[in-house]
# Entry
Amino acid sequence: MINLTINGKAITAPEGSTILEAARANGIDIPTLCYDKAVEVYGACGLCVVEAEGIPKLLRSCSAKVMEGMVVNTESDRVVRSRKIAMELLMSAHDGDCVAPCQLNCPARTDCQGYVGLIANGEYDAALKLIKSKISLPASIGRVCPHPCEKACRRQNVEEPINIAQLKAFAADMDLKAESYIPECQESTGKKVAVIGGGPAGLTAAYYLTIMGHSVTVYDMMEKMGGMLRYGIPQYRLPKEVLDKEIAIIEKTGVKLVNGKKLGVDFTIKSLKEENDAVIVAVGAWKSSSMRTPGEELEGVYGGIDFLRGVIKGNPPEIGERVVICGGGNTAMDACRTAVRLGAKEVYVVYRRTRNEMPADKLEIDEAEEEGVIYKFLTNPISFNGEDGKVKSITLQIMELGEPDASGRRRPVPVEGKTEEIAVDSVILAIGQKLVQGDVAELKLNERGNIEADPDFFTTDLEGVFAIGDATNRGASIAIEAIGEADRCAKAVDAYLNNQALDTRVPYISKRDEKTIDYSDREKQSRVNPKVLAPEVRNKSFDEVSLGFTEEEAKAEASRCLECGCREYYKCKLLKVAQRYDIDPSRFAGEMPQKYSHDENAFIERNTAKCILCGLCVRSCREVMDIHALGLLGRGFKTDVSPAFSLPLDQTKCNNCGLCVQLCPTGSLTEKANLVKQVPLNEVYTEEFVEIDGKKASVMVSRYNGRVLRVIPNDDLSRNSGLSRDELKALL
# Structure
């Protein structure tokens, strides 16, 4: 046995061992992407380098042997610099998406591709569980979310984006119709958390903290929980029966809900903190924004949120027959469509830009027009005119589009001398909402008048008090944004309660260059939208407009997904090493040497654009299987892994054993998608044991329809069995 020191730890290792073997045997992780005990040492990736005292150059630990008295450092500054450069070089030529663009564009980071794929396979329960790992109210959010995920969906480069939001609602509705999924909560921690505000942010934070084992109570000033989901979104878009069912599920996890209690009246933040280990402030933004236009004080001029809340609570204001809504967002759409349902004969939406610049969802804009709403684009109110204190007309300034502003949209500018006057019975200002500052007088506010909260940890100026949602930092946003914040805040509060550090570093992921993706081989398929009530029917009632997906429609729509994200994401060795260090591959950006390839093979899919030339597939095919189906073709930067003469794998000696897939560290070699869908990996492998010369070893056997697809050594058991490489070959 050889005595040596690694990272200050004195260890012993068998003579002839490599530094890598000695380190791993003692729980010290040295990264490598080209090493496997089943094949000869290659040393291609350069990541396993270590520094040894007295030796001037860095050593490749996969091949360097241990020596008596050796002192090794596996994480010195010099070693880390070398690994970072190696990783940056590798990643600069790795053309692949770790995560689908839809997931990256979702504020809650929901695995859209994952649950869409599960729905396509009819696995609705699994889809629902995946969704609820990030979204506590999926049936509600699926109905009202402006779906930023769809704006990033690459399917729109073929024809139209996937209907992700409606698929989310479909999976959640299936769950609500059955015995609803209730997550298992961890053992009680004995810690207590108070949440102020029962909207999407507060309920979500409470839900996840309860699952973590904490005792959570939510306090809300309204008669029922739901916040703006209940009091700001009309019944025809979000039936409150659906919201009630989802809130009931949250309550069943153990969250205590207390209604009719207002901050500053029934309790203070400090009084709650005295009774709890942490407090989360999620009070929302309940005050309609002002336009600062003359005449706003007139009777008949209402704030958008105030108007919608009154209707939902059963106390609609008298709006008359001629109504003007000011604004172009989803609240404006809710207000104008609600006015139509209340019986208004003429409903106008005035917006200072054009239809193309409206931030509201296109579907909402179109459906409102179908219901009789009249749009007056490029107009801006300059005064509300009254008689006897009651609004009678509105004067509009005619606008035109000038240069783009900070948002990227062309700035509207007045056309000098051109105005228009419209007779009205009421005006609804749907231009935004803001925090009621008096409610949170105990907390420090920023220059915008919102609670100042740390963007990573959500902490405020009071110890143990956190803040999330529309009341903080930038102000009111969409519900999915608040839900995403609440999920991250729950983790921050949990770390605080357990006195643990929270890593908020954004890990590196690989992204494809959108400009280089070719969609010419994709078959065009029309987007499937749920059926809706006819305009002449729906504009007379508050019944839900969308009838939702049938199972057939949901599966058909979900099957359009291009599956942009890598299927190997959760077990990709390349990504794990890339995220271990703070890398910047753009320093070595250049022309990508590989192209995506599609092979005629029933089981194995090759994607050479993801290949890092580690050689494991080539070497295992040659050294272990003795088949030689793959090789390295070309020279230098354009070297490629390919069958001889670039033949399809089906025209080689490949027997589909799958060892190359098992050893590939990047997702360049994967099982065919249809095979994965039909036979999930965790179901096809069975452990079996064999003996060679009296030595017992474990292998994993994969079968499909009675056929053995592959036999591979079990990483943990067979490598500790003492088998040599030749014996391993015989085993396979």
Remarks:
- Residues 470 and 476 are 4 Å apart (CA to CA).
- Residues 479-497 form the longest helix (19 residues).
- The radius of gyration is 31 Å.
- The first strand starts at residue 2 and ends at 6.
